[in-house]
Every structure is written in structure tokens, then in C-alpha cells.
Amino acid sequence: HIATSLPLPSERDHLRPRIDLIVFVIDIKSKCSLKNVEDSLAYVDANFFLGKVYFLVTGVGRVNCCSIEINAISKLRETYCSPVLFCELELEGVRVATAQRLLRILQICAGLVPGFSALSFSLLMRNSADD
């Protein structure tokens, strides 16, 4: 399910499936995109920050068009202890690989991969990004 911002409308709460993963998409060319994500983060339950929140930064192939500094993205990662994935959605191969990666992360977050928890996988992702 896709939402443009949080909070989600409450009138459909009874129809909404369980939420296993939240991916915030940030377009590196749009300060509005970052602001929307920052505003939406206030509506996320603290328990989700234990491995079930990721930031997906798009548009990284066009460095000359960036409106958002990488420091702002790093600050989000550190503040919310959540991994950041960078991708260029205009390239089909990267788009497919990113979708496959997110699906695998979702399977882990939903508890469908034996031996992995959302928190342990998130920590593994964070540690590999720090190297």
C-alpha cells in the first residue's frame, strides 16, 4: 500500500492489513519530499524504528540536481536508527534490483524468513553502511 504522507486516514482502519514495513521515499531533488518525510515521522510508532523503517533515497544519479544535502539524509539515519537505501529509479536494472531488495526486506520484517528478525537485519544493514 502506498500513502503520500502520514497519518493514514482512520476511517479505513478496520480494512487495513497489518503494517510490517514502512519505506519513506525521499527524492534527492526535492526539499518538499524531505519535509514531507520529516513531518510524517512524528506519526510512526516508536516500535517501528526497531528494524521496520527504511529510507529510500531516489535520484542519486543526478548529483548536479540535488536539493537535499547527504548530511540531512545521514541525520535521519542516525536520529531514527534506520537504514538508508540509495537508488536511481530511472535505470530499469537498478529499479528492478531495488524492488527485489525491498521485497526481501519486507519478507524479513513480516517474519517469513527463518533465522532473521527485522531488528537483526536492520542492524546488519546499518553496520554494513558504516564500513
Can you lay out the helices and strands and say which pair or pack?
Elements (H helix, E strand, L loop, with lengths): L21 E6 L3 H11 L11 E6 L11 H11 L3 E4 L4 H18 L8 H13 L1
Parallel strand pairs: 1-2, 2-3
Strand order of the largest sheet: 1-2-3
Q: Low-confidence spans: pLDDT under 50, at least 5 residues?
A: none
What is the CATH level 1 assignment? Alpha Beta
Radius of gyration based on Cα positions: 15 Å
- What's the architecture, going by CATH? 3-Layer(aba) Sandwich
> Helicity range of the residues?
40-55%
Number of structural units classed as domains: 1
- Name the structural class: alpha/beta
What is the mean predicted local confidence, pLDDT?
88
InterPro entries: Centromere_Cenp-M, P-loop_NTPase
Main location: nucleus
Keywords: Centromere, Chromosome, Nucleus
Subcellular location: Chromosome, Centromere; Nucleus
Give your account of this protein's structure:
- There is one protein chain.
- This protein is an alpha/beta fold.
- It has one domain (19-128): P-loop containing nucleotide triphosphate hydrolases (Rossmann fold, 3-Layer(aba) Sandwich).
- 40% of the residues lie in helices and 12% in strands.
- It has four helices and three strands.
- The chain has helices spanning 31-41, 70-80, 92-109, 118-130; strands at residues 22-27, 53-58, 84-87.
- The protein has a three-stranded parallel β-sheet, with helices on both faces.
